[in-house]
């Protein structure tokens, strides 16, 4: 009997269904070794050697796997192919005391892929293991060294993370930009024309032959002056241009773009998306879902061509195999993009007791995106016209040019299965020098707007563009910064920093700039990539980071005074008479005695500061205020709690 070990029972069941009786598939239920939670677990004096332990919850599993591996003629480690999966395989080998175990990897859980992997086993990739080990040690050093500093200088139970702190900085700095933003006024002038019963709009684009830029008409006075100049003129088509325009399909999904599209189209949070994708992968429906590569296998390209031609017709196939190149920093090009393992397996095949509606929706999204990537381009008939005002038979001294555009879908191509936003605007048949009937002039006032707050989709996109984190880390980053109470979502489900998040971010930016520096963090990711390729050693890289970090931390313990981040109130403690101050806890501000810990008096500020300006709909006496759960999630409740237990996740309406 040959023993195959995977991470999860679901993955194990799928593998077992492909393998014969000579194989037994067992699960490790994730990681079997880790750093201890009770202490640092890194020997700084001896090249940052990690001190791994087998957690209590894993001991029973390890014992059972060790027993099975001793009975097996060979043990095969089949954890995922990324760095974390390689690390799991290495830890299993250590915990089970395996001597040169076989390691197999595959990008999809299908019979052919598993059989091919078994024919080509390899040894554990020590470089990938070292890269993952370096990441774990780095994060442990930052978290376990910097968090106590935050406890002492801000509030108990706070924590700092190497990558998460950068994400908080992005959100906090965007918020500052929004608050400082000053709107700038500008105007546009549109002309509404009519021909053959079709009304269409043209925008004033040029004055005296020069393009009018965004702020070319800065105020109402200038807009009205131009409008006055244009009234009473005849309008003539100066030029017409018609052409066919192509719109090419998007590439198949990577982890980042899957999370972005799942949020935009399905409103799935990143963590939920990855959970559903994990189940689809383990059940053999999609390829591995933690990837930043856009590669597609030759088999998948041939399967796509066959399916598209048969299902939609030859004219819907691109006519060639579309290949894409990723722009992501440090992409693992040996991997493959996320795609269905078999295009012929329609989304409707997921309907049934085993899968929920979310599985169907996410699989359909992956299926559509992959097939669309190999389909023909969408074709549009595009028309552009320049329209000028005339007085009498000659152009007036100050001349203007209006520009009208229109496009009509001619052939849907890939849009047949993967919808993208586009605007159809039909222009009537226009000819050069023909006169047009002006319906009205429309001077319109506009104001510039600040950059919007980050959504889950745009935050993931920003992290990827800056080279922060990797496919397996985007969802945990977003979850962690919310769980820690540093950011929250507004009513439009966009991220904003909490007051605590702003304080912690400002403190880190001022005193630990490298920890939250975007370029520095991206450079660390690049170094981890180099370690995974075998181009760097991991211990010198950790040492290079840690020495200046530790020296700065020691200095800041002396320099940073906690009094600088509390607020005086002018009130006295009702218990001991000492001054009351506003302190910050994990869930926001509260009143506390300045003699803490000698005096432990505290007082909530919730009822005073969090009212939304309406009476409780249940008791009609208390005010509706914002509250937080133990995990920091905001909800609405009555200020008379516990006498009144009204609570709602949605903001009540008057």
From TrEMBL:
Keywords: DNA-binding, Isomerase, Magnesium, Metal-binding, Topoisomerase, Zinc, Zinc-finger
GO biological process: DNA topological change
Superkingdom of origin: Bacteria
PANTHER family: DNA TOPOISOMERASE, DNA TOPOISOMERASE, TYPE IA, CORE
Name under which the protein is recorded: DNA topoisomerase 1
Catalytic reactions on record: ATP-independent breakage of single-stranded DNA, followed by passage and rejoining
Source organism of the structure: Candidatus Wildermuthbacteria bacterium RIFCSPHIGHO2_02_FULL_48_16
Record-linked Pfam families: Topoisom_bac (PF01131), Toprim (PF01751), Zn_ribbon_Top1 (PF01396)
């Amino acid at each position: 009997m040959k023993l195959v070990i995977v991470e999860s029972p679901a993955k194990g069941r799928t593998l077992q269904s492909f393998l014969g009786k000579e194989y037994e598939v067992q699960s490790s239920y994730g990681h079997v070794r880790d750093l201890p939670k009770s202490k640092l677990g890194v020997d700084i004096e001896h090249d940052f050697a990690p001190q791994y332990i087998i957690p209590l919850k894993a001991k029973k599993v390890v014992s059972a796997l060790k027993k099975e591996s001793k009975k097996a003629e060979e043990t095969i480690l089949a954890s995922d192919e990324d760095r974390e999966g390689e690390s799991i395989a290495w830890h299993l080998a250590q915990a089970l005391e395996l001597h040169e175990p076989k390691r197999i990897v595959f990008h999809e859980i299908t019979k052919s892929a598993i059989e091919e992997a078994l024919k080509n086993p390899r040894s554990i990739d020590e470089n990938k293991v070292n890269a993952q080990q370096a990441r774990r040690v780095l994060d442990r050093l930052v978290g376990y060294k910097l968090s106590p500093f935050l406890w002492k200088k801000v509030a108990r139970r706070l924590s700092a993370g190497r990558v998460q702190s950068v994400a908080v900085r992005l959100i906090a700095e965007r918020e500052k930009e929004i608050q400082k933003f000053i709107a700038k006024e500008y105007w546009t002038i549109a002309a509404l024309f009519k021909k053959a019963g079709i009304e269409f709009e043209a925008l004033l684009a040029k004055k005296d032959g020069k393009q009018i830029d965004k702020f070319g008409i800065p105020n109402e006075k200038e807009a009205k002056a131009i409008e006055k100049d244009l009234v009473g003129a005849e309008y003539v088509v100066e030029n017409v241009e018609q052409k066919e325009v192509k719109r090419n399909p998007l590439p198949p999904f990577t982890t980042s773009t899957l999370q972005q599209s799942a949020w935009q189209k399905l409103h799935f949070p990143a963590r939920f998306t990855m959970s559903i994708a994990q189940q689809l992968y383990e059940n053999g429906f999609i390829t591995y879902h933690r990837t930043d590569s856009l590669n597609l296998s030759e088999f998948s390209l041939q399967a796509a061509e066959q399916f598209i031609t048969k299902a939609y017709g030859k004219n819907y196939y691109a006519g060639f195999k579309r290949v894409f190149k990723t722009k992501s920093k440090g992409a693992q090009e040996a991997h493959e993009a996320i795609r269905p393992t078999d295009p012929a397996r329609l989304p409707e095949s997921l309907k049934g007791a085993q899968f929920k509606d979310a599985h169907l929706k996410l699989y359909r999204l992956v299926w559509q995106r992959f097939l669309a990537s190999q389909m023909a381009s969408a074709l549009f008939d595009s028309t552009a016209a320049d329209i000028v005002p005339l007085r009498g038979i000659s152009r007036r001294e100050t001349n203007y040019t209006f520009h009208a555009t229109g496009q009509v879908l001619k052939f849907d191509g890939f849009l047949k299965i993967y919808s993208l936003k586009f605007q159809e605007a039909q222009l009537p048949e226009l000819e050069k020098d023909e006169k047009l009937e002006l319906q009205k002039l429309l001077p319109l006032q506009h104001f510039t707007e600040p950059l919007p707050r980050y959504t889950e989709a745009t935050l993931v996109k920003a992290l990827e563009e800056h080279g922060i984190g990797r496919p397996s880390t985007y969802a945990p980053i977003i979850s962690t910064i919310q769980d820690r109470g540093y950011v929250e979502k507004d009513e439009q489900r966009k991220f904003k920093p909490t007051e605590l998040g702003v304080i912690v971010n400002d403190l880190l930016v001022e005193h630990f700039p490298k920890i939250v520096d975007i370029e520095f963090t991206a450079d660390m990711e690049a170094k981890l990539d180099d370690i995974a390729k075998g181009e760097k050693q991991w211990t010198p890289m950790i040492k290079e980071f840690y020495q200046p970090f530790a020296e700065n931390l020691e200095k800041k313990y002396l320099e940073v005074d906690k009094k600088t981040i509390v607020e005086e109130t002018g009130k006295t403690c009702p218990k001991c008479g000492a001054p009351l101050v506003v302190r910050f806890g994990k869930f926001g501000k509260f009143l506390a005695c300045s003699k803490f810990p000698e005096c432990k008096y505290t007082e909530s500020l919730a009822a005073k500061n969090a009212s939304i300006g309406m009476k409780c709909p249940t008791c009609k006496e208390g005010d509706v205020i914002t509250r937080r759960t133990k995990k920091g999630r905001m909800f609405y409740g009555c200020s008379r709690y516990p006498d009144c237990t009204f609570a709602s996740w949605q903001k009540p309406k008057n």
